[in-house]
């Protein structure tokens, strides 16, 4: 005889149920089958992780997974703030805007850092520029500027794609 106790601790007769031996054996079989399936899936996952770690080309996929987790956790924090019913609308806006400002400061600080590197390189190459190697210096600086611009554009595109993926996952 299995009994169901309600939240207040009283015995609830409506939910009491007698299981015969067939139900118990079927329940045990189902539990064992589910345990075997879980064990198989975890073994497969562990094996695939080993294959991914041993594969040299999986470096990019590991970096992709890491960046995706960072973006998803950030988007989850935005969703948690938006869906929090305990704070009012203006506090939600303030919290979200603070997070957005923090995110905007990261690329801005990287831009300032790269500009300071260019200024240092400009002072270092000043002697080369006056000696007549201006074409070489111009090519090097333009190459660096081009690489930084391309990496910024690709970073924006990558982030946009991950945001779209996050929204598709949340819709399901």
Automatic annotation (TrEMBL):
Keywords for this protein: Membrane, Transmembrane, Transmembrane helix
Pfam families: DUF3671
Membrane-crossing segments per the record: 101-119, 139-160
Name the record gives this protein: PIR Superfamily Protein
């Amino acid at each position: 005889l299995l009994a169901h106790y309600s939240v207040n601790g009283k015995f609830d007769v409506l939910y009491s149920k007698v299981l015969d031996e067939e139900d118990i054996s079927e329940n045990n079989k189902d539990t064992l089958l589910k345990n075997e399936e879980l064990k198989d899936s975890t073994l497969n996952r562990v094996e695939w992780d080993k294959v991914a770690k041993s594969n040299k080309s999986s470096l990019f996929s590991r970096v992709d997974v890491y960046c995706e987790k960072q973006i998803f956790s950030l988007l989850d924090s935005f969703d948690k703030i938006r869906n929090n019913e305990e704070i009012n609308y203006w506090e939600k806006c303030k919290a979200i805007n603070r997070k957005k400002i923090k995110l905007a400061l990261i690329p801005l600080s990287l831009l300032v850092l790269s500009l300071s590197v260019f200024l240092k390189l400009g002072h270092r190459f000043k002697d080369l520029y006056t000696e007549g190697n201006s074409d070489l210096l111009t090519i090097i600086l333009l190459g660096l500027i081009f690489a930084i611009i391309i990496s910024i554009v690709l970073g924006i595109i990558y982030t946009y794609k991950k945001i779209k993926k996050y929204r598709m996952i949340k819709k399901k």
